[in-house]
Design a protein that fits this description.
This protein has 273 residues and is an alpha/beta fold. It is built from 10 helices and 8 strands.
Length: 273
Amino acid sequence: MTDRVDLGRDVLDYYGLGGERARLATGAGRLELARTTEILERWLPPAAVVADVGGGDGRYADWLVGRGHRVELVEPVPLHVELARSRAGVPPRFGVHEGDARAVPLDDGSVDAVLLLGPLYHLGERRDRLLALREAVRICRPGGLVVAAAISRFAPLLDAVRRGNVDDEQLLANVLAEIATGRRVARERRTSPFPDAYFHFPDELEAELSEAGLRVERLLGVQGPGWLVDERDDAWMDDRRIERLARIARELEDESRAAVLSAHLLALGRAPG
């Protein structure tokens, strides 16, 4: 177990506003949730001990417990920790620990699987992302599964297109700069509150997992092109439409050239041993 480290203030401030509470229950978040849970259901072993690192308010942890897994959630945002403890209940259905992905407060080799469904987004420096991935390897049993999510390099530009914001010259300049560097532009340039972040190419995400000691088994696009449906479209309230969009993503998930159409990527790797 490593010493605690701090996350950037703008990241903590952004998530401290509470916007994550509804994100996966509305709009394109519904497709992200449906596809992520579908992939986890396929890949997790039965009755696994799972570390949900960067687990937010516990939505995934709650879902995992309902499918027979034991979960230890680790989260750096105080508001999320509070919400996760409330969701866990009394006695708690899953463990909740305040901590950072680069210093996980769990013992070596103590879990069967590690989920990193958010931490890599907001670790702008490669060394920090590798530290988080190595922490995942440390706490994972030999041969265990590590699931690491990343935001696609082209997601900021595609999001600007779907929102009809390409006429905003400053925003367009920002997203083009983010494609060039992979890094969220400086705070004084931003036209939206989304904090410091890193945006991955698929092969770059795979390379980071490999350098951390993981054997990469799959790289999947999560949403496919379906997330590009306008957020205001009533289609997001239709369960059948969500399933249709999920089916499209499922059909494309093994096509590496289509991965960048997704807002999020999922890399699945195995711990050594």
